[in-house]
Recover the amino acids of this structure.
């Protein structure tokens, strides 16, 4: 990842050198804090959106595109100006519906880092309909601004007029809002507890079937993923995808994963079989499944 990022932008440019230094300080995770963003903007006389557009080729470095070979980068800017990178993640030998789009990647990355509202989404290609619908699920979607290199400052409704979303179904809990499913993490196995906590923060107001993923790495680190449901159903993002995406964007090696736990309360639907299928395709550890 380090060399790919270094080679993406010319390193004889001071701005690019400064960006590489900031990313290196964070172990090459696709994230810049508001303080780092402010420092770069002040040093190089940029607005945050201008900086985010400059970063899009670097965000695209985190893509895995074994199907399309077409890399898309995105940056989600939080309400306090933190930058969360995103990139499209594809998985060969499984259904194409398992794909993570770049905008979904950046937003779920922000969600797992504790972000509560996205102010701007910056992306290097026009959002597809799938992503427009996914963004419409967000808390504060009516205020969200979309920026492309050739078109800045467009509200989401410019791309999704006459939209259908949570409000049409009388749903008041939106994606990134704090949610609670009253699941108790009291297991003797801490990895299972982490899966329960992840499931407890799922966004699933339509199926009421939360699930979470917890991964254990060789160094003892645990990464979790949560289910992000959508009013249009198809743009929903399962917990395994959000966990894998987080691992990719934080420069983790999937080969270092030792255990994977899925905790699910399958009231109306289950993601167990598609989760197992993707794990087999990626040659990852056998799923440990806990039904609540």
């Amino acid at each position: 990842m380090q060399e790919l990022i270094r080679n993406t932008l010319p390193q004889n440019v001071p701005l690019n050198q400064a960006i590489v230094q900031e990313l290196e300080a964070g172990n090459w995770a696709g994230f810049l804090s508001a303080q780092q963003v402010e420092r770069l903007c002040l040093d190089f006389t940029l607005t945050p959106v201008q900086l985010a557009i400059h970063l899009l080729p670097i965000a695209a470095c985190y893509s895995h595109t074994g199907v399309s070979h077409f890399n898309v980068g995105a940056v989600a800017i939080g309400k306090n100006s933190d930058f969360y990178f995103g990139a499209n993640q594809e998985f060969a030998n499984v259904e194409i519906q398992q794909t993570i789009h770049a905008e979904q990647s950046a937003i779920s990355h922000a969600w797992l880092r504790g972000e509560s509202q996205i102010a701007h989404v910056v992306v290097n290609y026009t959002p597809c309909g799938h992503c427009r619908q996914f963004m419409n699920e967000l808390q504060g979607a009516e205020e969200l601004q979309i920026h492309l290199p050739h078109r800045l400052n467009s509200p989401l409704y410019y791309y999704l007029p006459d939209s259908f979303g949570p409000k049409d179904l009388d749903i008041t809990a939106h994606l990134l809002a704090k949610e609670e499913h009253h699941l108790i993490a009291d297991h003797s196995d801490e990895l299972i507890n982490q899966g329960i906590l992840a499931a407890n923060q799922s966004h699933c107001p339509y199926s009421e079937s939360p699930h979470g993923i917890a991964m254990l790495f060789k160094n003892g680190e645990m990464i979790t993923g949560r289910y992000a449901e959508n009013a249009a159903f198809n743009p929903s993002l399962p917990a395994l995808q959000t966990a894998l995406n987080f691992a990719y964007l934080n420069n983790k090696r999937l080969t270092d994963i030792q255990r994977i736990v899925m905790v699910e309360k399958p009231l109306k639907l289950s993601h167990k079989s598609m989760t197992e299928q993707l794990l087999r395709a990626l040659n990852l550890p056998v799923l440990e499944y806990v039904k609540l």
About this structure: The domain at 27-169 is CATH 3.40.140.10 (Cytidine Deaminase; domain 2). The mean pLDDT is 96. The chain is about 35% helix and 20% strand.
